[in-house]
Amino acid sequence: MQIKLFIAAGLLLGIAPWAHSAVLPEAADTMKIVLAKKPTTRPMGVAYVPDYKRYYIADGGLGGVDENGGVPTPKSEVHAFGADGVYLQSGKPGLDSRSLYYNPNSRKLEAITYNISSDAGFTPNAGVFSVVLDDKGALVSDRDQVGNYNPAFGEAGTMPSYDPAGNRYFAKQARSNKVLVVKLESREKIAEINLDLNAAGVQFDDISDHYVAWTGIPSEELAVLDVDHKAILVFDQNGKFVGRSALPAGIKLRAQNHYNGLGYANGMFFVYSETEGEFGTYHGYRISDQAKSE
Fold first, then answer.
1. Has residue 19 got a pLDDT over 60?
2. Which pLDDT tens digit goes with each residue over 199-253?
3. How confident is the model at residue 61 (pLDDT cuts 50, 70, 90)?
4. 228 burial level (CB within 10 Å; 0-12, 13-18, 19+)
5. What is the helix (H) or strand (E) element at residue 39, kind and residue range?
6. Residue 192: is its pLDDT beyond 70?
7. Residue 15 lies in a domain
8. Is residue 293 part of a domain?
9. How wide is the angle at C-alpha 287 spanned by C-alphas 228 and 81, nearest 5°?
């Protein structure tokens, strides 16, 4: 009888008691991508392109090299993997990537480079780019420009995440709880979010410095890596703390996990483990019971 009364009360209030989403208390290790070659620089973002059922991982951290008296071109690579995480091939699009994501609006793989804001002064080949793929999803070592410098992104090293429904970017700022919300057509931020780190029981230097994931899950939209406590912290899009999802106790994180080796793709939060495998391994963690993967 009590259960029936509870359900009836919930329905009267317009709430289905069984419909609430929840952050998983323990992150589910769902996907593993073992790097097959040494990163050209530092491993950065992860993307999944459903059209080809492939994952892509970008390297970054190396500025342009002028070899022929022209515009200096970064030598960092992008690497392609199958749906099973098996390495396929690499390409050099000429980008010092920070973020990599699939844009369902343009149906393209896109990258955001270091210093998109020009906070570190002028650097060539900086901005938002589409990474060119052939009709089978192979990298062809080329790119097309989508957007130029935009000071709204804030700090030079930010790894923005993308919200395709709102056509917005979320740019985490270093050594802070601050996230800037950006649209490419505006040269100023459209909003600012302050993650409630006090409610999460952490300090700004416990968490990833440059990256916040956009999950697209209602009331669980933002997620950051808590490096020091080996967990993923989840917030709503206003910065309210929602919950934490603990990573496996045996995972070995390093200082670089504050700055790179992170991404959110195909319903999973990806974390780079440098000591696993010859060249490191990305693990994809499911952190919500509402996360959807192909």
1. no
2. 999 999 999 999 999 999 999 999 999 999 999 999 999 999 999 999 999 999 9
3. confident
4. middle
5. none
6. yes
7. no
8. no
9. 95
Total domains, the chain: 1
Where on the phi/psi map is residue 292: left (φ > 0), alpha (ψ -120 to 50), or beta? beta
CB 147, CB 156: distance < 8 Å: no
User: Count of H helices and E strands in the chain?
Assistant: 2, 20
What domain range is 276 assigned to?
A: 21-64+73-288
Q: pTM of this prediction?
A: 0.92
Helices (H), the chain: 2-12, 197-200
How many angstroms separate the Cα of 163 from the Cα of each of 25, 104, 168, 201, 260?
25, 10, 5, 27, 20
For 57-104, the DSSP string reads EEEE----B-SSSSS-B----EEEEETTS-EEEEE--S--EEEEEEET
Dihedral sign, CA of 21, 232, 50, 127?
positive
Q: Residue 172 belongs to a domain with what CATH number?
A: 2.120.10.30
Tell me which H or E stretch contains 144. Answer: strand 139-147
